[in-house]
Amino acid sequence: MKLGKQSVFYNAFFLCLSSVGLQLIGFVYRIGLSRFGGAEVMGMYQLIMPAYSVIMSFTMSGLTLAVSRLCAQYQAVGDSGGVRGVVRFSQLVFLCLFAGAAIPVCLFPDLIAGIVLGEPKIKSALLLLLPCLFLTGFENIFKSCFHGIKHILPPIVSELTEQIVRTVAGLGLLIVLCPTDPGVATAMIVLGMVISEVFSVVILAAFYKRADGRVLPRQAGPLRIPKGMFRKVAAIAVPVSSAGLLNNFFSSATTVLIPNRLISAGISAQEAMSSFGVMVGMTMPLLMLPAAFIYPLNTVLLPRFSQYSAKSDETQTRRKAGKAIQVTSMLIAASLSIMLPLGHVLAQLIYNQPSAGDHILPLSAATFFTFYHITTGSILNGIGMQRQASASIVVTGVSEILLTWITVGTMGIGGYALACMGSELVGVAMNFYWVIRSAKIKVQWRNWFATPFLSAAVAGCSAWLVFFCLEQTGWPQMTAALLGVCVALGIFALCLSFLGIRLSRYLKRLFIS
Predict the structure, then answer these.
(1) Which long-range contacts (CB under 8 A, 24 or more apart) does 392-396 make?
(2) What is the pLDDT of residues 199-208, one digit of tens each?
């Protein structure tokens, strides 16, 4: 078949290939961290990441969305100067915002590490986050520009290089230096992140500087920032950044709250940190593997929805939104057909932790709603409804922290899985309501939900039966689990064809349109 190189799903396909590679490398990275660092180090690493997320939300979350949307609009009218002006203006804004976030961290690292995050040992890692965040900001601006102008090669090259360097540097530092202090080990992991960001920024800057006329025409004369740029960027970035900042404050509060609630329930501090690290650093990343496909899809869709909205093309908006939801359903269903029957066994085999894979059912339900939340949020952001998308993010964050407080103290770490599930359900319900109402989409119950999830149910039962029979006859667990995964995927595709969706034809229609 002849591929449509400007189609949404053509570009998403190559981003997906890259994302799968990133997930595989990242998986190896996490396995190495869990084995060379241990559960306590994984817990501290997860504890430091909320600070990373909060600063990124304050400085970048809305800014990257604005860069992607505005670059797409300027490119659509052939204004290369506008594209470069967006990048230059966004870099200046980022520098100002980063300074505002970095100064308090430099002045009060002991207070933030010991009191706010609740672990004084992570002070060094907290300070090392600042150069990492500085480089990440420029990296994300360049990547958002390339995504907006539909030039996906530079982000793919930089992300793969970054992940490889991060894995080699992070694990290399742990293996060579063998730090016995968990705080020092956490700092070594963050130092590996800094090293990898240097490579990524250099690669993206080189691509941007050398972009030829087919990608981004060179502007004659000095670079000028277009008039009204502040207003345009602020209109997109402020609501998204505000919501992201609030949500990350809530998420950070939840992350700090969980070990404290476990300790108050009578669990030792080390055990609380270990159980938190196993759930958040091992089990949940396994369930989030479909994100390797869903995030690239939404990265490509967002600037397209922006263009459709600018042209008032409601037909294309409805068509692409429906396809995005359907593809998301198929990815979720395929994942659940594997994770529900085999997720607990796979997690234990991969991480070599007896408790890895615990609470797989509520966590699977939480990721189920999370993926729909991501896709519907991307649709809303793309059609100019960032305030509604931001509102659902804030409501989800508030719900999560309230439910965590209620459940973890009485139910242990399993209560957090239920809190995630309940909060994501609230957020995705809000998003679906606004998407259906604004885009005037008719819900296709059969194609979106019934067909993929009935197929997943049959595939999941078949996978469990195969695994159980092979294990009972003496096959190694790993071999039995892998064969179960293959059976699940094969039966899933077969059931889809019986119910009217032939994957070969379906993919052909996606990639030529």
Answers:
(1) 392/427, 392/428, 392/430, 392/431, 392/434, 393/243, 393/244, 393/246, 393/247, 393/427, 394/243, 394/246, 394/247, 394/250, 395/426, 395/427, 395/430, 396/247, 396/423, 396/424, 396/426, 396/427
(2) 999 999 988 8
